[in-house]
Design goal:
The structure holds two protein chains of two kinds.
Chain A: H1 7-49, E1 56-60, E2 63-67, H2 69-114
Antiparallel strand pairs in A: 1-2
Helix pairs in contact in A: 1-2
Chain B: H1 5-54, E1 60-66, E2 69-74, E3 81-86, E4 89-93, H2 95-143
Antiparallel strand pairs in B: 1-2, 3-4
Helix pairs in contact in B: 1-2
The chains are: A mainly alpha, B alpha+beta.
């Protein structure tokens, strides 16, 4: 079918497909980061709820190391800030891809409109 | 419902929607499987804490190290349980607190599983109604000696 289409339209279709793949990848990464942020928030809430003398551990691989509550809270907050920043970047990237996608879609529509009608 | 371009367009839209619903349903079934595994894990933890509460300190036991293998151990303390709270953090809690937290988690997971089942039922309903229309197409085309796909 695409063999019958003019090269310009084929090119636009290929670009649209590429953008769709990019969008998929960005959305997957975005939802992973959102999940990690939710997890970190939940852990921070649990740490806040725990008493000051609560025994806290930090897992590294299969091992659990005793940790200092304020220090670990600070570490989690820093980790969350970094993830928030990455999420913002992802959102911007998503918007950029979406806008390019819309632009290409319009171009494709107009290219298809200019195609001579198929005689039957 | 004819093999006119409009009918063909509707047919291909229906087929595409059906496939999309099918893919969504498969994803949800996988998620339901995961929630079931999580529930089973929570049940195991709850049973272990309840058993520990009834055991004596110094009780001989076997600790799993994976692949169905165990090492000998003795219960050093029944005063606390270490619970993973996510993000590589674990907190020591009393058995009662640990039971409460795990039960709350189980309730949350069960609520999520119910929501997933509801969505799956809705998708199933949509797929059935599309299937009904596709059957009507097939019937109409069969009468004219054509094929749906």
């Amino acid at each position: 079918m695409s063999g019958e289409l003019p090269p310009q339209i084929q090119n636009q279709l290929a670009q649209i497909q590429q953008l769709q793949q990019q969008m998929q990848a960005v959305m997957t990464q975005k939802s992973q980061i959102e999940g990690l942020i939710r997890e970190t928030d939940a852990a921070l809430r649990e740490l806040d709820k725990a008493s000051d003398d609560a025994v806290i551990y930090k897992s590294v691989g299969e091992l659990l190391f005793k940790a200092d509550k304020p220090k670990l809270s600070e570490e989690l907050k820093e980790r969350k800030d970094m993830m928030d920043l990455r999420l913002k970047t992802m959102v911007k990237q998503e918007e950029r891809i979406q806008s390019r996608f819309n632009q290409l879609q319009e171009q494709l529509k107009s290219s298809l409109g200019q195609m001579p009608a198929k005689g039957g | 419902m004819s093999s006119s371009p409009r009918g063909e367009e509707e047919l291909s839209q229906l087929l595409a929607a059906y496939q999309q619903y099918q893919a969504q349903a498969e994803l949800i079934v996988r998620q339901i499987g995961l929630t079931q595994m999580t529930m089973e894990g929570l049940d195991r933890a709850l049973r272990a804490i309840e058993a520990m509460q009834q055991a004596e300190e110094g009780q001989e036991m076997l600790v799993p190290i994976g692949s169905g293998s165990f090492i000998h151990a003795k219960l050093a303390s029944k005063e606390s349980v270490v619970l993973n709270v996510g993000a590589s953090v674990s907190i020591e809690k009393s058995p009662a607190e640990a039971l409460e937290t795990l039960k709350a988690r189980k309730e949350e997971v069960s609520k999520g599983a119910k929501e997933l089942n509801d969505v799956l039922a809705k998708i199933d309903q949509e797929m059935q109604s599309i299937q009904k229309v596709l059957n009507q197409y097939e019937q109409a085309m069969g009468e004219r000696g054509e094929q749906v796909v």
